[in-house]
Structure formats: C-alpha cells, structure tokens
Design brief:
This protein is an alpha+beta fold and 376 residues long. The protein contains 18 helices and ten strands. The strands form four sheets. It has a four-stranded antiparallel beta sheet, sandwiched between helices.
Length: 376
C-alpha cells in the first residue's frame, strides 16, 4: 500500500484518535513518537563498545537498524508506540523471595507470553487506521526486531527512562510491555511533550540489585544481570554470582519492586497474564522434577519456554544450592533438597551436572544448621 505524499489533513487530532482506538483494543496508552534517536543510538553504541551486552551478539550486529526505522521497514516515516500493562494478581513477590524453598519467576513470565497478544492487537490497530485515516504500509513489533523501543516510548510521551534503564510512567510504574507500529502514514501530529524524568536523587534500583548489575544511573551490565544470566546466558553461570541469584529461577524484578513509582501501578485484570500452573507459589523441589516433556507441556504459550529445559534445570540447581546454604532451613527440608539434586546427578548434560555439584557443596556442615536455629 502507498501512503499520501503530503501530510494528511487533520479534521481531528490523529494522535488522540490513535490513543482512543488503542485503548479500546486493550492497550493502556499509545502515542506518536518523534524519530529523533541520534543520542539514544550513541548511548547504545557506547554500551556495546564496553561489552556490557554480554553474549547477546545480535544487539551489536543490528545496532544500525535501531537508529533509523526506515532501514528496518522501508518507507517508515511515523512510529506509533503503545503500552500494555501486565502486573498480575499473584503471590506477594517479597514473600516468595524470602522463602528459600520457593521458586521466584519474574512477574511478566507467570502467564501467557505477551508477544502474540501484543502483535494481534497492534495489527488490529493498524488495520483500523487503514479504515480511519488511509491505506498504509506497516509493520508491527513486539520485542521482535532491533527497535529502540524505550526511546520511542519516551518520544511518544509514554514515560521517561529510569535509572534502571526501564521506562517509567507515573500511573503504571514500569509494569508494562512496549510495542510499535512502523508505518508510512504521514501523520502530521504535534510531537508529544516529553515527560519530565522524576527519578530525582533516588537510587533504590541501583542499591537493591542483588548482583550490582546497575553500575550507574542508566547503565546496566547485562553480564551481571540475573534476567540475562537465567534467560539469555548459555553455559555456566559465573560462580561468584550464583549466591546472589537466590531463588530467582527465571528473570528478576528487584529493581522494579524497589522503585517508588511502582507503588502506583494497578493490578492488570487481563486473564492472559494471570499466573498459570500455580507458578507464583511453586516450590523448587517440584519444578526440578519436571521432565522435558512436562516442561514443554506446562510452558506452552509462555515466556518461560525461552529458557529451555537445560537452563531451567541449571537455574533451579543454583536456587536449591542457595536454599541449602540458608541455615534457617530445617534438616528435613535440606535432606529433601539434597535427594532432589541427587536424583538428577546423572543427567546427561555437563552444565546441569556441574551446577548440581556446586549446589550440593553449599550444604552447611552437619550440626551447624540446628545450632543456628537454636541460637536464633
């Protein structure tokens, strides 16, 4: 489809029209983004040059595409950015993190994988714009291509980029997904007013990070980030970082949980993001017993599938090792966890085996646990 060569006449505010239609489709907000991305691309290049992306080589390979939307989708002159809230009604995160035998899964991954839902709604919005504004060529994105989505969301007025590198919104905190429509529609919209950053002198996200992955305001070292280590990273998790991972087996929310702005985030009622299979209260010992077939069956349609069964077992072995090191754990509970590790000791993968061996070494010497319990 080809778009009009001149800016569209504006019998009404197209940005407001887009926002209203997006909200009717279930998005929390939408805006038309300025394509001024030079500073953001320079920030990305510095980050890549420092090697802070770890093993995510694709980020460096396609960095140039992020700076110029028209390179990713020829003809793009307008980008529509949307926000989809996801904070689910789930077991209290702090309570799960404090329970050594529980498995903590990042809140966004407890329910349905958002990618298909996001793309479906974005396509519906794009097709509505065909009817409302004009036929157009477009492409939708949901964390599925090299897009500077946080910068575009900021440019669309959806929030500001916080010190933890996530987009923050006064009403929703950071509990939301981002998506984009790249289009050749020449929408003559007034650029969104930039949202004033409101992090101030707060460093809660930096201070709370278990592995000190936020090395400064707006600077994340992915190589130390628990989300990266438990999801993207293949092979051995560095031993020096394993104790700080605690019971986080898929992702980490600590910087979001600590952020004062997330006090204002409302629970999202979308059934798609509700916890599945009781995963918000799951026990490490139960999840470690899942066979590969069980893992594939129970994670179907979920972001959890991204880790794969081997990394799933690797991550849980680390969490069990950290539970064993907790002197508050009863001897009976510790013995059950050791039995679970032993049951997988012959698992045919060297990485899983090495993490199991590490976990078994975390158990305190005999008698020290009961001494600690009585002294406490």
């Amino acid at each position: 489809m080809s778009a009009p060569s001149e800016p569209l006449a504006a019998p009404r505010d197209w940005a407001a029209e887009i926002r209203d239609r997006a909200r009717a489709l279930g998005f929390a907000d939408a805006g038309v983004a300025s394509l001024a991305l030079d500073d953001d691309h320079a920030h990305l290049r510095r980050w890549l040059d420092e090697g802070l992306h770890g093993g995510m080589g694709w980020m460096a390979e396609h960095a140039a595409l992020r700076a110029d939307p028209a390179q990713l989708h020829p003809g793009t002159i307008t980008v529509i950015s949307v926000r989809l809230d996801y904070r689910p009604s789930a077991e209290d995160a702090d309570a799960v993190l404090a329970d050594a035998e529980a498995a903590y899964i990042s809140r966004y991954a407890l329910g349905r994988d958002y990618h298909k839902l996001m793309r479906k709604r974005l396509k519906a919005l794009a097709e509505q714009l065909t009817q409302t504004i004009a036929p157009h060529g477009y492409r939708v994105f949901a964390d599925s291509a090299p897009v500077l989505e946080k910068a575009l969301a900021r440019n669309a007025g959806l929030g500001w980029i916080g010190k933890h590198t996530l987009v923050l919104n006064r009403e929703a905190g950071s509990w939301f997904f981002l998506g984009e429509i790249y289009t050749d529609l020449p929408i003559d919209a007034v650029p969104a007013e930039p949202v004033t950053p409101r992090c101030g002198s707060c460093t809660a996200c930096i201070d709370i990070c278990p592995t000190q992955a936020i090395i400064g305001p707006y600077r994340l070292d992915a190589r130390r980030c628990i989300s990266y280590l438990t999801i993207e990273h293949h092979g051995d998790i560095p031993e020096e970082l394993r104790p700080a991972i605690g019971n986080r087996i898929f992702g980490c929310d600590d910087c979001q949980l600590a952020c004062p702005w997330n006090r204002y985030a409302k629970l999202d009622a979308t059934p798609d993001f509700a916890p599945r299979h009781g995963l918000d209260t799951a026990r490490l010992i139960d999840l470690f017993a899942w066979t590969e077939d069980e893992y594939l069956s129970r994670t179907e349609g979920m972001a959890l599938r991204r880790a794969g069964h081997l990394r799933w077992l690797r991550n849980i072995a680390v969490a069990i090792g950290n539970a064993l090191a907790d002197v508050r754990l009863s001897e009976a509970a510790a013995s059950a966890l050791v039995d679970a590790l032993d049951s997988r000791s012959a698992f045919p993968d060297s990485t899983v085996q090495s993490h199991i061996r590490w976990a078994l070494k975390r158990r305190p010497a005999a008698g020290s646990r009961s001494t600690a319990l009585h002294s406490g």
